[in-house]
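ok trying again, last paste got cut off:
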Amino acid sequence: MNAHVSRPDFAVLGGGLVGRLIAWRLAGDGHRVALYERGAADGSGAAAWIAAAMLAPLAEAASAELLITELGAASLALWPQWLAELPEPVFFQHNGTLVVWHHADRAEAPLFERRVRANAPRELVEGGFVTLAGAQVDAAEPALAGRFARGLLLPREGQLDNRQALAALAAGLAERRVDTHWHVAVDERNLPDAHFTIDCRGLGAKPALPALRGIRGEVARVHAPGIGLTRPVRLLHPRYPLYIAPKEHDRYVIGATEVEGEDMSPVTVRSALELLSAAFSVHPAFGEARILELNAHCRPTLPDHRPAVIWDGASTLAVNGLYRHGFMIAPEVARSAVALAEAALTGALRDADGFAAWRDAARWPTLLHHRNDARQPA
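nice, full thing came through this time. structure:
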């Protein structure tokens, strides 16, 4: 076969969450796509493997800026549409988030609310932020009846099963005839031949994006029959903030730790004690839960904690820096990356000025960068 004929339109480097989404969408648009991932098809080597996969732009607004919450809101609208196109089912819940706190930590609640209202778009806050008291808390989450006097319900938020999503995307890549190369590490010395390259390697892209750093996250997965939480619960605490995300079959993802550094070693005893003790304080039945795993991974992060889609002005795009917001913002980041990559491949973007005009017309101009752009991450 002629080598030129077999040359793919796009080579996607990195088969974590955003790499899979981008390759899958490009193939769905009719492009010939090859994907290279140093890990396995199940995604167990990616940061997305240990994520809670909460789609919670309002709750995250307590610590994230407006851009992140807007990306989260747009992605939450995309997730059910995209999941419906995948060949395998993925657990998806759009039942909101419940925020609670113990009486001793009641000062955390107004601080949380002020931050959310300041960092979230008004249309997201209006009707999406409900104050609960007494029986209202019990009605919102019967499993916690009598345990919390007050709470906040964020009814528009959702979640999904991260590992089912990774598996379904792998099946979707096969269905759309993406040329997948699992267990293949790619770096600057052995780049694959393609008309256009999209680098989604996360921390593996540090040679190209030296400002990248890792933020370690640690989670526990437990099996806790009989509790029956119907939605993710967030516990406000000055030292040990916590989330508990219920998945199918009485399984729960418990997390919140965030540690600077790229240490990929097992979860520390301190982190495990903090996570499990805080979960026990939400519901004592977690004391009888069976620990399925304690796991840690490092999320790729840029200095401003914003994701970035960076075009080099020729035939390479870098997509990185999704930080702790991976599942929450990945669809909209991927959608923007696909639009930029397709425009660059077809020659619609010929120089920096053309890119600037195109970006200014795009939905998320602060997400998209040119290598000569002063706003590009260092």
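cool. DSSP finds eleven helices and 18 strands in the chain. The longest helix spans residues 66-85.
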